[in-house]
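ok new one. same drill as before - structure tokens go in, u give me an amino acid for every spot. 278 of them this time. try not to just spam alanines like last time pls lmao
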């Protein structure tokens, strides 16, 4: 019923009004996720925002997750800022190096390293060398735990999972919700990962396949398709992505919400603010 109501709104009011309504709803969905009593839902909402451009409200919303009492949400904030390449958040990531959870420290260090901040490299080198004597004193207690996990295969795998699969898929990373979904549904993993990797492929057949993925029976495919189409800048798919704001799976709603917002974000200001921050 909601699907047809939204479609009716589009037909009666036209795309501009529909788009603004969709963006407003998208922020409401993400805000709901950020304040959900379940930390897993909060994580999903934060990670979904990793595809947003590093602009105003998007950056402020992700940074607010550093105040969360659950370490996994704070870790997700580091991951999303890393994916966004939010250079204006470097000071926040420096503060995150003081976090009591080693997962957060590791994620903050990785984000800093990826954005060219020397402190991020310093943390990584300290882990590799097993010597923190020359480090900046950010991680006295956390470093021991990080080193332990780095030498524990299971711990390393979990850190890798919670970091998302961005290390392997680059800017088309699926994020934590989809990564966890892949582990639960092996049958969907091939299609889901392929859609993520082809986010920047503009061949008509590929775009059409991703468009069809928005209606796939598996939520990980729907979520990946929405993210990939948004990252590929396919504004012509805005309407169909926006319809996923009513998806039965909240995880897909979060991905669709972030996709809707990204497709309406101006490309210029974000790039300018990044240059200014550098």
């Amino acid at each position: 019923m909601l699907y047809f109501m939204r479609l009716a709104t589009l037909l009666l009011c036209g795309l501009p009004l529909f788009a603004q309504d969709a963006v407003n709803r998208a922020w409401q969905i993400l805000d709901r996720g950020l304040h959900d009593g379940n930390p897993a839902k909060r994580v999903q909402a934060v990670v979904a925002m990793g595809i947003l451009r590093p602009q105003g409200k998007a950056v402020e919303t992700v940074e607010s997750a550093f105040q969360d009492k659950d370490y996994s949400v704070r870790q997700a904030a580091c991951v999303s800022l890393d994916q966004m390449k939010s250079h204006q958040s470097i000071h926040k990531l420096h503060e995150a190096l003081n976090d009591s959870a080693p997962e957060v420290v590791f994620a903050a260090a990785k984000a800093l390293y990826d954005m060219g901040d020397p402190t991020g490299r310093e943390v990584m080198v300290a882990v590799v060398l097993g010597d923190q004597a020359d480090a900046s004193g950010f991680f006295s207690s956390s470093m021991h735990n990080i080193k332990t996990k780095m030498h524990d295969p299971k711990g390393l795998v979990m850190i890798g999972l919670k970091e998302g699969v961005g290390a392997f898929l680059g800017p088309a990373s699926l994020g934590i919700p989809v990564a966890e979904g892949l582990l639960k549904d092996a049958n969907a993993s091939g299609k889901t990962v392929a859609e993520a990797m082809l986010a920047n492929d503009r061949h008509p057949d590929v775009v059409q396949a991703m468009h069809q993925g928005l209606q796939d029976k598996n939520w990980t495919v729907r979520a990946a398709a929405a993210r990939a189409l948004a990252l590929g800048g396919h504004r012509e798919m805005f309407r169909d992505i926006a319809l996923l704001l009513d998806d039965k799976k909240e995880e897909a709603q979060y991905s669709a919400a972030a996709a809707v917002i990204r497709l309406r974000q101006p490309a210029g200001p974000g790039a300018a603010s990044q240059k200014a921050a550098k």
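The chain has 18 helices and no strands. and btw Residues 15-34 form the longest helix (20 residues).
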